[in-house]
TrEMBL record, chain A:
This is Aspartate aminotransferase. The lineage of its organism: Eukaryota, Metazoa, Chordata, Craniata, Vertebrata. GO terms for biological process: L-aspartate catabolic process. It catalyses: L-aspartate + 2-oxoglutarate = oxaloacetate + L-glutamate. In eukaryotes there are cytoplasmic, mitochondrial and chloroplastic isozymes. InterPro entries: Aminotransferase_I/II_large, Asp_trans, NHTrfase_class1_PyrdxlP-BS, PyrdxlP-dep_Trfase, PyrdxlP-dep_Trfase_major, PyrdxlP-dep_Trfase_small. Belongs to the class-I pyridoxal-phosphate-dependent aminotransferase family.
TrEMBL record, chain B:
This is Aspartate aminotransferase. Its cofactor is pyridoxal 5'-phosphate. CDD domains: AAT_like. It comes from Gasterosteus aculeatus aculeatus. Its EC number is 2.6.1.1.
């Protein structure tokens, strides 16, 4: 029965607890579908096959398939514990020490933007929180079109984040399924048609889900075209250090665009490169014309943030800031990031070698050419379904696998499974 | 030309600006009675002893890592939070119709609840549903519901400035006149900023009207334990409404009662008609969380969860909470006594009748200005003071300052 029928029935018969119990405010609430990415882990957990593999979520695993807590993180935690700090609220924009070194990490210590203080960088709830603040800011203050152009494909959560913030989504060609590589021509063609002042989202490095990144010469052309079209650039950098193993190399595109005069928006995450997933450490930066503009933008970001969560959590930001600002820990971190990235690269090589050994006739070069945590295998949905059903290998329907879930112990099994569903 | 050329400079959030001004002030006797954070008698922040203990356990536990929590949060934290609010013996919990979402502080819990209500309550995406907040209320309530999309946010009568107490008649009248299905944000205890709570009899009257008129109950519970020193006593209103059969939301904060301000530990308790309605509701809240922060921070939830789920630690926590509540009660007694001893004009019973961290002194904006400019005693323009800012060292100075403000600066005529 509808609310209205029952309400009027209660009114006419007088208040009655037993009638009230028949209906709920939430009778009309539909069951939400499981999250496409996080839902994979849920399904994986339910599987009892001892050989099962979780190649869904992009969380790094060591060669034993275990979560990896970086030594620099443990050391930073010890330093922090010894300081006996209080737990007073952070400012709305977060821990100042953190925001500063977060911006430095992305932009480079010698960045002209930092020297002129024409950026505003706030601490955010990891990458998601950063993107959402950015999306909310655009919805409220961007005078241009409501459209945000995402690469096709993009991280699944980009679309609902921008949508919930009140923006609309469009796409530009990016991934070429025939080559499992970058559709450079298609991208330029589409970008050249984007209406002026629209927002264009770019993955800074280690594109998610494809692992396909533009080469530097291609980035240069993209930058020129974007400038010509007068588009507002929003970089998502969730894997700095994780892609090539080198933090400066991975930030090259971001820094190049800034040098070329783009006043970008930038989201950063420390979930992967510092293994601080559950601590929710991230940053949001707006590069402005000057300090005065940065101050105005900052004041509005605070107004946006306060009614969402008031101020951000301390723990992870304190760890990250300690690592970045303590020379020994920073060096250790760089080594560990390099180590993680290298393990991924090795697994890519071993997977391809394994597929060759299985006798696969397909070209798997893209597995090695792609970069970062993810590999867009090229598997079709039916093949993915078989891989999951028959081999208990869990991945997202788009054929994306997280290389971080691959180990020397299971790479052979994975090669076997992939070969079985593709031969 | 900049895309942000037209972005206006926003005014600072008042309570934080107050703290900033306080920090800049060089006066030796300055006092900050602004932000709602507990202070010891030495005017220092206090990390609860039980929190220190549990943090050490966490850091030393090599088996713990920093992996993502589930979207809705740490399971042990979630169940413990519901229990703290509704009580161990809660029939609703036993019936499987209580669940919730770990959120970033009380603010985060309010926001998730508000977003959900805007999308799914009283129709689909009904931004016109009136949302009522008390007059006055925590200033962020307005922004939370407005940014969640609600277009019609209204005050309900609450504080009676003339009698310095609850305007019950006005409140009940607003409940009778509110459109059906309106959302009402109720402070579970220790009303912020007035410190004035309905009595149990008054809560019963409020409940009767809300049930009869199908109004939605959204509790904000930021001070459980902190108000009276007793968790169960402070949760009486919440538990009464649940026993009366309401489906409701409770935004809980562990910032104050655990002193975990900067770890952003909060929880939105959802009480639904039955488990089936509950699970659909939670599935939609997951979607909201996923585009807001994906999954919540783990540190604070681990601390609270370990504490609430271990009998010895739970007992130690209750005792820490009582320490804080008792110090506040002591300062209330002493401030009232000193004002009476000074012969400060007016009645000061409200200082001890009000409950929790805050007191609505009754000082008008001009008197507040005087307090700040002349006495370097910082308080909100509303006349709200944080009792935790009072110590045995500064209470005489504060009492004298209030006395001077009242005698030297005239009462405004409204």
């Amino acid at each position: 029965r509808s609310h209205e029928e029952l309400s009027s029935s209660i009114r006419s018969t007088g208040s009655s607890p037993s009638l009230v119990s028949y209906y709920s405010w939430w009778g009309g609430v539909q069951m939400g579908p499981p999250d496409p990415i996080l839902g994979v882990t849920e399904a994986f957990k339910r599987d009892t096959n001892p050989k099962k593999m979780n190649l869904g979520v992009g969380a790094y695993r060591d060669d034993h398939g275990k979560p990896f807590v970086l030594s620099c993180v443990r050391k930073a935690e010890e330093l922090i514990t010894a300081k006996h700090m209080d737990k007073e609220y952070l400012p709305i924009g977060g821990l100042g020490d953190f925001s500063k070194c977060c911006a430095q990490l992305a932009l480079g210590a010698d960045s002209e933007v930092l020297k002129s203080s024409r950026n505003i960088t706030v601490q955010t709830i990891s990458g998601t929180g950063s993107l959402r603040i950015g999306a909310n800011f655009l919805a409220r203050f961007h005078g241009g079109p409501r459209d945000v152009y995402l690469p096709k494909p993009s991280w699944g959560n980009h679309t609902p984040i921008f949508r919930d913030a009140g923006m609309q989504l469009k796409a530009y060609r990016y991934y070429d399924p025939s080559t499992c590589g970058f559709d450079f021509k298609g991208a330029l063609d589409d970008i050249s048609k984007i209406p002026e002042q629209s927002v264009i989202m770019l993955h800074a490095c280690a594109h998610n889900p494809t692992g396909v990144d533009p080469k530097p010469e291609q980035w240069k052309e993209i930058s020129d075209l974007v400038k010509k079209r007068n588009l507002l650039v929003f970089f998502d950098m969730a894997y700095q250090g994780f892609a090539s193993g080198d933090i400066d190399r991975d930030a090259w595109a971001v820094r190049y665009f800034i040098e070329q005069g783009h006043n970008i928006l930038l989201s950063q995450s420390f979930a992967k490169n510092m293994g601080l997933y559950g601590e929710r450490v991230g940053g949001f930066t707006v590069v402005c014309n000057d300090t005065e503009e940065a101050k105005r933008v900052e004041s509005q970001l605070k107004i946006l943030i306060r009614p969402i969560y008031s101020n951000p959590p301390m723990n992870g930001a304190r760890i990250a800031a300690t690592i970045l600002n303590t020379p020994d820990l920073r060096s250790l971190w760089l080594e560990e990031v390099h180590f993680m990235a290298n393990r991924i690269i090795k697994m890519r090589e071993q997977l391809v070698a394994g597929l060759k050994k299985e006798g696969s006739s397909h070209n798997w070069q893209h597995v090695i050419d792609q970069i970062g945590m993810f590999c867009f295998t090229g598997l079709k949905p039916e093949q993915v379904e078989r891989l999951t059903k028959e081999f208990s290998v869990y991945m997202t329907k788009d054929g994306r696998i997280s290389m971080a879930g691959v180990t020397s112990a299971n790479v052979g099994y994975l090669a076997h499974g992939i070969h079985a569903v593709t031969k | 030309m900049s895309v942000f050329g037209d972005v206006p400079l926003a005014p600072p959030v008042a309570v934080f600006k107050l703290s900033a001004d306080f920090r800049e002030d060089g006066h030796p006797q300055k006092v900050n009675l602004g932000v709602g954070a507990y202070r010891t008698d030495d005017c220092q922040p206090w990390v609860l002893p039980v929190v220190k203990k549990v943090e050490r356990l966490i850091v030393e536990d090599a088996g713990l890592n920093h992996e993502y929590l589930p979207i809705l949060g740490l399971p042990e934290f979630r169940s413990a939070s519901s229990k703290v609010a509704l009580g161990d013996g809660s029939a609703a919990i036993k019936d499987g119709r209580v669940g919730g979402v770990q959120a970033l502080g009380g603010t985060g819990a309010l926001r998730i609840g508000a977003e959900f209500l805007r999308r799914w309550y009283n129709g689909v995406n009904n931004t016109a549903t009136p949302v009522y907040v008390s007059a006055p209320t925590w200033e962020n309530h307005n922004s939370v519901f407005a940014d969640a999309g609600f277009k019609d946010i209204r005050p309900y009568h609450y504080w009676d400035a003339a009698k310095r107490g609850l305007d019950l008649a006005g409140l009940l009248d607003d409940l009778e006149k509110a459109p059906e299905h309106s959302v009402f944000v109720l402070h579970a205890c220790a009303h912020n900023p007035t410190g004035t709570d309905p009595t149990r009899e008054e809560w019963k009257q409020i409940s009767e009207i809300m049930k009869r008129r199908s109004l939605f109950v959204f509790f904000d519970s930021a001070y459980q334990g902190f108000a009276s020193g007793d968790l169960d006593k402070d949760a009486w209103a919440i538990r009464y409404f649940v026993s009366e059969g309401f489906e409701l939301f409770i935004a809980q904060s562990f910032s104050k009662n655990f002193g975990l301000y900067n770890e952003r530990v909060g929880y939105l308790t959802v009480v639904a008609r039955d488990s089936e309605n509950l699970s659909r509701t939670l599935s939609q809240m997951e979607k909201i969380v996923r585009t807001t922060w994906s999954n919540p921070p783990s540190q604070g939830a681990r601390i609270v969860s370990k504490t609430l789920n271990c009998p010895e630690l739970f007992a130690e926590w209750k005792s820490n909470v009582k320490t804080m509540a008792d110090r506040v009660l002591l300062m209330r007694d002493q401030l009232k006594a000193k004002l009476q001893a000074l012969g400060t004009p007016g009645t000061w019973d409200h200082i001890t009748q009000q409950i929790g961290m805050f007191s609505f002194t009754g000082l008008n904006p001009k008197q507040v200005e005087y307090m700040i400019a002349e006495k370097h005693v910082y308080l909100m323009a509303s006349g709200r003071i944080n009792m935790c800012g009072l110590t045995t060292s500064n209470i005489d100075y504060i009492a004298q300052s209030i006395h001077d403000a009242v005698t030297k600066v005239p009462q405004c005529r409204s």
